[in-house]
Amino acid sequence: MRGGFTIHAAVGVVPPPRRDKSAPIETKGRFLVASETQGLAARYALALYELADEGKVLDDVASDLSALRQLLSDSPEFDRLIRSPVLTRDDQGKGVLAVAEKAGAHPLTAKFLGVLAANRRLFALPRMIDAYLAELARRRGEVAAQVTSAVTLSEEQVASVTEALRKVVGQKVTVDLTVDPSLIGGLIVRVGSRMIDSSLRTKLQRLQLAMKGIG
């Protein structure tokens, strides 16, 4: 980044916080809230992408965001930290910056998290992560796939999954990995809005639901 440049200036292109428009208020209806949160996430993610592109740290930021996504899956405490309406901006800011520092995140990622905390936008971080990684893949002519497995996949397994997905979608695929130990087996793969599910747990749940319908 250039001298005197801060992320606050770049994210300034995003409209200022409007609690009545983007905060998750139940009375507005779940669909409307989800849609507005997605739009908010897309704007912030694009601002972050442009900064990372300018600083030539696209992959560094992508790696940080992937790690944060895994942390959100592994740590209920971190998930509560970003979603809690009770914590102050300062408390959320100190919390996420401590996490970023411990993880060795790139300074740009840390500044971005600080801006989200200051603007009370941390609740949308999961969607922002998805949006950033999807934009990165799109600009590289790739398709972003989210792969969730019960255990960490080996390099060979990742290569096999990537190749299989390439054949399915018909173009180059970038794989973002998440581990969920609660899965009994198999993989859960999402390519855009398309779900490819081979999870044994999901199959068992469907079987149980089907059996409930048998009188």
Description:
- The protein is built from ten helices and four strands; from the N terminus they run ααααααααβαβββα.
- The N and C termini lie far apart (66 Å).
- It folds into two domains: 1-140, Peroxidase, domain 1, CATH 1.10.520; 141-215, 3-Layer(aba) Sandwich (Glutaredoxin).
- The chain has a four-stranded mixed sheet, with helices on both faces.
- It is α+β, with helices and mostly antiparallel strands and 215 residues long.
- Helix 4 crosses helix 5 and helix 4 (58-74) packs antiparallel against helix 8 (125-139).
- Helix 9 links the parallel strand 1 and strand 2.
- It has helices at 7-11, 19-22, 30-54, 58-74, 76-83, 89-103, 107-118, 125-139, 155-169, 200-212, and strands at residues 143-149, 173-179, 187-191, 194-197.
- The chain is globular, with a radius of gyration of 19 Å.
- Helices cover 60% and strands 11% of the residues.
- It is a peripheral membrane protein.
- This protein is part of the stalk that links CF(0) to CF(1). It either transmits conformational changes from CF(0) to CF(1) or is implicated in proton conduction.
- It comes from Thalassobaculum fulvum.
Low-confidence stretches: 1-28
Strand order of the largest sheet: 2-1-3-4
CATH architecture annotation name of the largest domain = Orthogonal Bundle
**What value does the Rg take, in angstroms?**
19 Å
What profile does the largest beta sheet have?
Answer: 4 strands, mixed
The tally of beta strands, per DSSP, is 4
Secondary-structure element string = HHHHHHHHEHEEEH
Taken as a percent bin, the fraction of beta residues is: 5-15%
Return the average pLDDT rounded to an integer: 81
What is the total number of structural domains? 2
Helix content: 55-70%
Shape: globular
Task: Please give the alpha-carbon distance between the first and last residues.
Answer: 66 Å
CATH topology name of the largest domain, in short, is: Peroxidase, domain 1
Helical/strand content category? alpha+beta
